Amino acid sequence: MPAIRSLRCFASALISVAIAAGANLPAIAEGSRDFYPSGASGRRANIEWRTNQVGNPNFVGGSGSIRRRSIFQVYAKAGEAILLGSTANGVANTSLGTTGSILVFEPGRISGFVGSETIPAPDLDCNADQPGVGRITSRAQELAGPRSADGTGNLTGYTPCVYTAPGEGIYSIIFTGPNGLNNNANGVIAADVGL
Fold first, then answer.
1. Residue 130 — pLDDT band, cuts 50, 70, 90?
2. Which end of the chain has fewer CB atoms at under 10 Å, N or C?
3. Phi, psi (deg, nearest 5) at residue 167
4. 173 phi and psi, to 5 degrees?
5. Is 40 helix (H, G, I), strand (E, B) or coil?
6. 122 pLDDT more than 80
7. What pTM was computed for the model?
8. Could you tell me where the beta strands, DSSP code E, fall in 72-126?
9. Contact 20, 83 (CB under 8 A)
10. What are phi and psi of 7, to 5 degrees?
């Protein structure tokens, strides 16, 4: 498949976020398979993570510039598993020494106004903490969705990165491309799952 921009892969960072209440009882699941179901054509919408500021810095009392960053949110109760997958998770950019990942933040840890949030160290870095899982490598896996948290259900799906919620609340999720969190350059990734 042709190489694609990091932002396009980022866009297809296949936001398969699912919640399972217990080992095999899915409660809610939503992701790119829902936005781009079987038979969909065209290109995915971009998911952005840009470090540069855009906009008029003099607007709104001098704070009008924002960073274009996509931060997703998922509600979970204590003990529920958040199942995560991305085409960029574990994909390295050797020239920058960075790797794509999925980052999870417990409720209230990301602060600030939209577009100028303060991003702390994550509570889970899928690539570093659970290497080898959480990568979607085909359209069939995307459409199938994640396997169950215990690995026994939905065997045609991808093996997710799993985060078990320690408490009830709204968790923040960041999908990074191979360029990581601190780079504004467009990059490439060799394998897009396509539509």
1. very high
2. N
3. -155, 170
4. -125, 130
5. coil
6. yes
7. 0.78
8. 72-76, 81-84, 92-93, 98-99, 101-105, 124-125
9. yes
10. -70, -35
Whole-number Å distance between alpha carbons of 149 and 137: 18
CA distances from 86 to 56, 71, 82, 109, 174 (A): 33, 14, 13, 22, 11
The residue behind tokens 């296949």 is 14
Q: Which two tokens stand for residue 156?
A: 């045609």
Q: Which two tokens stand for residue 170?
A: 């709204």
C-alpha distances in Å from residue 143, one per residue of 18, 82, 156, 160: 13, 18, 9, 14
**b/e code 168-187 from CB counts within 10 Å (16+ = b):** eeebbbbbbbbbbeebeeeb
pLDDT tens-digit readout, 12-52: 344 344 444 344 455 555 666 666 777 776 666 667 777 77
Distance, CA of 183 to CA of 49 (rounded, Å) = 9
| Structure tokens given for 48 | 């952005």
Identity of the amino acid at 135: R
For residue 46, what are its two tokens? Answer: 């971009």
